[in-house]
Amino acid sequence: MELHGFGHLLLAGTWVTLQLAFTSLVFGLLLGLVGAAAALSPIGPLRWAAVGYNTLMRGIPELLLVLIIYFGATHVIEWMTGAYVDIGAFTAGVIALSIAFGAYATEVFRSAMLEIPKGQREAAMALGMSRWDSFRYITLPQLWRLALPGLGNLFLVLLKDTALVSIIGLDDLMRQAYVAAGFTKLPFTFYMAAAMIYLLLTIVSMQVIQLLERWANRGYRGARA
Amino acid sequence: MTSPAALEVVDIHKRYGEHEVLRGIDLTAHDGDVISIIGSSGSGKSTLLRCLNLLEQPSRGEIRLRGEKLDLREDRHGDLHAVDRKQLERMRARIGFVFQSFNLWPHLNIVDNVTLAPMRVLGLDRRSAVEQAEALLARVGLADKRNAYPGNLSGGQQQRVAIARTLAMSPEVILFDEPTSALDPELVNEVLGVMRSLADEGRTMLIVTHEMRFARDVSSQVMFLHQGRVEEPGPPSEVFTSPRSERCREFLASHL
Questions:
Q1: Distance of alpha carbon B21 from alpha carbon B14, whole angstroms
Q2: In the prediction, which pLDDT does A22 show?
Q3: Which InterPro entries does the UniProt entry name for this protein (chain A) (predicted)?
Q4: Chain A: which residues have CB within 8 Å of chain B?
Q5: Could you give the ipTM of this predicted complex?
Q6: Which residue on chain A is closest to B105 by alpha carbon?
Q7: pTM score, two decimals?
């Protein structure tokens, strides 16, 4: 495929897309864990907050979320601190994608937590382990195994949702393809090139997710180590 | 002066809403006592055992371990909770509990199942925890399974690992909650054998069980529970051969 010297732009855009996806993944996972813990908490207000977060964030199109945060965050910061701060497209994108990912991840983590039999926590309690140790050594390690398939799916969605952030001017893969297409008047070429790159990233991600799942399931497949 | 009893509970009550499961149970376990708790299902045996280390919240009563009283506070539903979480954790570490359904942790191999609590709770370093675990696994006849995962073991093997896991905390009292009820009949004896050897070495044990012959052979005391009360307490020679209560007689007739 002849890219008329725009290949390096697409590569630079790919790099931005990856940074955006992985940064959002990290924050989104944290939000999801906190959300799930809140959703299952015995404390009422925490549960309500989790439900509110979930409903709100899953009820708004992510494109709208990106726009609201990009244009709204500046107002909020100005209102709170009095200072005018431009948060930038990358930060806005990370915030929007993290809270959207977090809302869906909350559900995945929540049902994973419910899948772990209560007796396992009781065994930890009966041995005098603290709640934190029980969470850290019993719940958390199994959570990954149970949540991985769901989280993997969410990540594949996230990877492609990063393209939404191009609308606020972030130089990600999508926007670079758009720029190159406009400049060369070869939209098909560049959008196809971008599509191939997204596809490649997705295939690699799927392979990695599969490896992680296999690793998380060791000991469950009748293998005597 | 005699030392305080290993475990002493006074007037334990437990209610679920209107339904009263335990209606005032007293129990004292001195060092070396093996107390079997028998009774039909629904008599409150398992609930009693679970109340002793607060896996279940009692509604009333006192729990003392070696004379130390567990501080309890009532919540708005009328359930008792530990005032001091640390005290509860300390006491739980000294009271072993063996579950009907083993409750091994499936993501950890056998050695890690046995070493986790001693390392996290007692602060043992990995090397001594592993050494201890290997000795305990050998004791329950599973030395060769140290690297297996619970999913690869039979029920009887899992329960023996669970017993080793409990022993690793060097508990002063061990509570067994129907330890063989979830096992296929041919696997029951390997678990009872381990329990018998524990009784023989003078461990203090409370056993909720349906294995009447075993209870008769190893117990120093037997408690027959009926509708949340101790209907008939006594040495096994009396309870099993000449029970005074009609209900206990009926129960034994259908279980021996």
A1: 6
A2: 96
A3: AA_ABC_transptr_permease_3TM, ABC_transp_permease_HisMQ, MetI-like, MetI-like_sf
A4: 117, 119-120, 122-130, 133, 137-138, 141-142, 145, 219-220, 222-225
A5: 0.93
A6: A120
A7: 0.83
In chain B, positions 39-68, which contact chain A (CB-CB < 8 Å)?
Answer: 53, 55
Q: Name the residue of chain A whose CA is nearest to B109's CA.
A: A219
Domains along the sequence of chain B with CATH: 7-96+173-255 (3.40.50.300)
Check residue A81 and give its pLDDT. Answer: 82
Domain limits, chain A = 7-224
Burial class (CB in 10 A: 0-12, 13-18, 19+), A206: middle
Q: What is the pLDDT of residue A1?
A: 63
Sites in chain B below the pLDDT cut of 50 = none
C-alpha A158/C-alpha A103 separation (Å) is: 12
* B contacts of A123 (beta carbons < 8 Å): 97, 99, 103-105, 162, 165
- The per-residue pLDDT for B211 is 93
Beta bridge partner(s), residue B27: B9
Q: Which amino acid is at B93?
A: A
- Set of chain B residues whose Cβ sits within 8 Å of the Cβ of A137: 116, 120
**Long-range contact list for A161-165, CB < 8 A, 24+ apart?**
A161/A62, A161/A97, A161/A100, A162/A17, A162/A20, A162/A21, A162/A24, A162/A93, A162/A97, A163/A17, A163/A198, A164/A62, A164/A63, A164/A66, A164/A93, A164/A96, A165/A20, A165/A66, A165/A89, A165/A90, A165/A92, A165/A93, A165/A96, A165/A97
In this complex, which of A128, A129, A224 lies closest to B152 when CB atoms are compared?
A224
CB A181 within 8 A of CB A191: yes
How far is it, in rounded angstroms, from Cα B109 to Cα A224? 10
Q: Which residues of A touch B92 (CB under 8 A)?
A: 125-128
Mean pLDDT split into 10-residue runs, chain A, 225 residues: 79 93 96 92 89 90 91 84 82 93 95 93 96 91 90 94 90 90 89 93 94 79 41
